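Researcher: Good morning. I'm working through a list of sequences from a screen, and I'd like to move beyond sequence-only analysis. For each chain I'm collecting a predicted structure so we can compare shapes side by side. This is the next one on the list. No need for commentary yet; just the structure.
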Amino acid sequence: MPPAGPGRDVIRLLTTTTVVLALLTAAYFLLPLRFEDAQHPWLRLTGAVAALAGLGVLLARNRRRIRRLPVAYRRIERLLTALYVLVLAAALVYYAVATLWPGQFVGLRTRTDALYFAVTVVSTVGFGDIHAAGTGARLVVTVHMLFDLIYLGTAVRLLSSAVPAPAPAPTTAPETADPAPDPAVEDPRDR
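Model: Good morning. Structure tokens for this chain:
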């Protein structure tokens, strides 16, 4: 394990964030949206609750460790987790719209499709393989894009306020404008 310091803090941040994202993703895929259509709905619901409980335990156990991290790292972790929760929430909404009102989305059939589409909206990639076709879906996607703009602007502001301004460069002794001429060096103007 690296010695205490920024490297160890970054590793701790990445490890915790990765585990949080994995548990949230497990809950997303296990959560039954419609009990009558789901295979083994109570088993899936139990798995989703267990993943969320694991997330709660992880966050409670790491609270003291997280408090020891620099403020900027804590903000990064919270912002990454919040962004991923928003992506998963948007994916659930997209999946629900596609399931309840067929024809609203082209190419969106599974939760994986919905998660993929939510990530492409957040990242502004937009491959075109999945897109909103109906007015309702377009409205949902537009609200998602506007929310992302507000969220990302706020995130940038929070992160930039957490990063300390760079220290001014150390000053050096001023050099003399015209050093004394060296008599051993011939001045080209004397020719």
